[in-house]
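User: Predict DNA 3'-5' helicase's structure from this.
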Amino acid sequence: MLRGVVELQLAVPRVVALKPRVMQKSYGGNYDRKLFAKLRKLRKAIADEENIPPYVVFNDATLIEMAEQMPLSASEMLSVNGVGTRKLERFGKEFMALIRSHTDGDDEE
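Assistant:
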């Protein structure tokens, strides 16, 4: 048995309040907002057809970069962040066709 006095120390967990994350929906930069809306519409149609979430096709940041750069060739499309060879092969033609149509003014809505 214990004789005498023993000092006991317990660790008290610190509670740290985290700041809530606020998702930014406004993107800066000079991108074609009309083209961005068309790209989102195409992404949604592809996602619905393939039964996958839209962000699996391309995320918003990638679509914004497409609306800024307006890539019309495979090499230009590959320079867009979020576009790799697989996504280029899978979705590139449709997105480049839409961008080409938009830049030619053929697709008026």
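The mean pLDDT is 86.
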